[in-house]
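Let us practice reading a record.
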Amino acid sequence: IHALVTAPIDKSNLSKVDFQFAGHTEYFAQKGGKDSLMLMVHEGLRVALATGHVGVSQISTVLTKENIVKKAMLLKESLIKDFSISKPKIAILSLNPHAGDHGKFGNEEAEVIKPAIEFLQEKGMLAMGPFAADGFFASGNFKNYDGILAMYHDQALIPFKTLAAQHHL
């Protein structure tokens, strides 16, 4: 298979027919027996998710250093293989407002995200961050990276859909 096109699905209807997956990504990952990466692409904008279809109240419990490293590595592999970028530069977003503001808004940046970035850098990846998502997208800084790893669904999809709809990245 070289490509697969899916249509939007109504997740509430799927639960009525015993579809035990949060969405397409999780279904295909299980069927394929491989790790998956949700990646949205529009022209030069490529945004991936560290966590998939997870409720906001659960994000910090499923967000681990290992998860971030695994998703960043999958993003790097895709950027090399699918987009012919030999040494991709990847931005990693923070979880909390203002990148946690030195623990004022949470410790995930210091305890989980920064250690993951440091590990990736030690492995030779051009991974940078954590960047506060609002300023990162609003400033246009996203244009300086080949790929972006967001921590959760809406953190990625709201700016992605807004920017992609403008058609002038």
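A brief commentary: The chain has a mean pLDDT of 86.
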